């Protein structure tokens, strides 16, 4: 078996990275854009000692779960890997991904319930981050997502997973920027002014905060005038900011943001609480699905404890702490980002919350200084999960349970395995579909101390 070989394969299973799995004489082959139940002709693109990868050259018999992608750019864009699979089966595959990952990485045999669907499966993405470039000859501006495994931009005019107003705003920026002396960014030689356009769009108010990420250290030329034109053009734009990022980096946002016109935030509502979201604020991209997760966590705490004291770690703008505050005696949050803590205090004041203690510290360092005990500890770490030291401290500080919210089944399984070794019991793991049409899946695990 070697590269460029063509094989007829039955797709039998699905990987946690969204690839179909087939076997040839016991040898595992991962196939892009395939679905369990497909019979396909596959051209091998890479052959390793233990597995191979390939692409489909012909679909001989399609799976009963195949459907027509509603976006014509689905294959080239790479943002919605599963859009060619019917949505109900996507939910089943995500349930399977979580179950398989728990067994293989965590050695955890637990029944995983059905994935809770997203209330919206189109127009659900309320944070948009488009890299910007330009054509070499005409300097026509390009905006969109990168093709898979490249830094080549797919120029997108219409994206059905984000609010339609975002398409119109970005198209206007592309058409008008040159009139204000602003060119798209060329990564290769680090020239051009506009690197990214970021839009934070409110599901609740329908307002949009536009952030122009520029290759500069301060406002230049007609940038303020351009921002004012964007603001005046769209009633749905609540403000236009500029973010300065002149570094040679893949990080989208720099450290400094300046509001050029309007407001530097939008408001979003989760359950009965109102949140302020700025250019650099971490907030879930799918607010309606996020609301399902917040409700699930709040319902568990309400049913399990009477007037509890709760620790909200890796808190961001303390979203969990704010949402559950009215069923708690006290919520203590810890977050290392200073701007998020400032915003959390503002949001708490907006919502008349007086039982919230916000600590601006690295979670691991905070854990070492805390002596109070909490009825339950909420962990909502980044994709890399928690360190063993943080898990040790969360275990020490919890009287009864840990609620672990994760966007990465692999690191969740690893961390749950560690907690089990300390004597904990995983009571449940509930998947949620936060990122429709992708292989990503959000989970809430309830862990009890033994």
Describe the structure.
The protein is α/β, with parallel strands linked by helices. It folds into three domains: 6-66, OB fold (Dihydrolipoamide Acetyltransferase, E2P) (Beta Barrel), CATH 2.40.50.140; 92-119 and 286-448, Rossmann fold (3-Layer(aba) Sandwich); 127-270, OB fold (Dihydrolipoamide Acetyltransferase, E2P). 26% of the residues lie in helices and 32% in strands. The protein has ten helices and 22 strands. It has helices at 74-77, 87-106, 164-176, 223-233, 287-304, 319-324, 338-350, 363-369, 388-397, 409-421; strands at residues 6-10, 13-14, 20-24, 27-31, 39-47, 51-61, 127-134, 141-146, 153-155, 194-201, 208-214, 237-244, 256-262, 265-270, 273-278, 309-313, 330-335, 356-360, 374-379, 398-406, 425-432, 442-448. Strands 9-8-7-10-11-12-13 form a seven-stranded mixed sheet, with helices on one face. Strands 18-17-16-19-20-22-21 form a seven-stranded mixed sheet, sandwiched between helices. Strand 2 and strand 3 form a beta hairpin. Helix 2 (87-106) packs parallel to helix 10 and helix 8 (363-369) crosses helix 9 (388-397). It starts with 5 loop residues before the first strand and ends with a strand. The mean pLDDT is 95.
């Amino acid at each position: 078996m070697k590269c460029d070989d063509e094989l007829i394969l039955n797709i039998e299973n699905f990987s946690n990275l969204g690839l179909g799995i087939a076997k040839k004489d016991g040898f595992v082959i991962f196939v892009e854009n395939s679905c369990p139940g497909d019979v396909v002709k596959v051209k091998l693109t890479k052959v390793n000692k233990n597995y191979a990868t390939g692409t489909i050259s012909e679909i001989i018999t399609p799976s009963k779960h195949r459907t027509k992608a509603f976006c014509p750019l689905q294959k080239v864009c790479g943002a919605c890997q599963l859009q060619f699979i019917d949505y109900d089966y996507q939910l089943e595959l995500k349930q399977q991904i979580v179950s398989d990952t728990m067994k293989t990485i965590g050695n955890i045999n637990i029944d995983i319930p059905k994935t809770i669907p997203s209330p919206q499966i189109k127009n659900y993405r309320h944070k948009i981050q488009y890299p910007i470039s330009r054509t070499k000859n005409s300097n026509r501006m390009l905006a969109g997502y990168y093709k898979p495994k490249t830094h080549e931009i797919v120029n997108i005019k219409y994206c059905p997973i984000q609010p339609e107003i975002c398409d119109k705003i970005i198209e206007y920026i592309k058409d008008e920027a040159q009139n204000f002396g602003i060119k798209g960014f060329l990564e290769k030689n680090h020239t051009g002014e506009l690197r990214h356009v970021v839009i934070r769009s409110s599901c609740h108010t329908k307002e949009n905060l536009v952030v122009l990420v520029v290759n500069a250290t301060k406002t230049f030329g007609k940038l303020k005038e351009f921002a004012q034109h964007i603001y005046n053009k769209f009633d749905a734009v609540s403000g236009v900011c500029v973010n300065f990022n002149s570094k040679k980096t893949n990080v989208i946002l720099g450290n400094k943001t300046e509001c050029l016109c309007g407001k530097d935030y939008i408001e979003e509502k989760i359950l009965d609480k109102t949140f302020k979201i700025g250019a650099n604020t971490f907030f879930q991209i799918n607010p309606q699905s996020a609301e399902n997760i917040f409700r699930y966590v709040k319902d568990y705490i309400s049913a399990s404890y009477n007037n509890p004291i709760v620790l909200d770690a890796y808190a961001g703008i303390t979203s969990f702490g704010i949402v559950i505050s009215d069923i708690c005696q006290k919520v203590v949050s810890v977050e290392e980002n200073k701007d998020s803590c400032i915003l959390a205090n503002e949001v708490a004041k907006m919502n008349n919350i007086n039982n919230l203690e916000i600590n601006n510290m690295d979670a691991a360092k905070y854990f070492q200084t805390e002596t109070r005990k909490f009825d339950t500890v909420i962990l909502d770490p980044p994709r890399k999960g928690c360190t063993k030291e943080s898990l040790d401290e969360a275990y020490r500080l919890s009287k009864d349970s840990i609620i672990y919210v994760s966007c990465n089944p692999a690191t969740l399984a690893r961390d749950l395995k560690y907690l089990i070794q300390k004597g904990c019991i995983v009571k449940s793991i509930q998947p949620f579909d936060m990122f429709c049409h992708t292989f990503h899946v959000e989970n809430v695990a309830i862990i009890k101390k033994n």
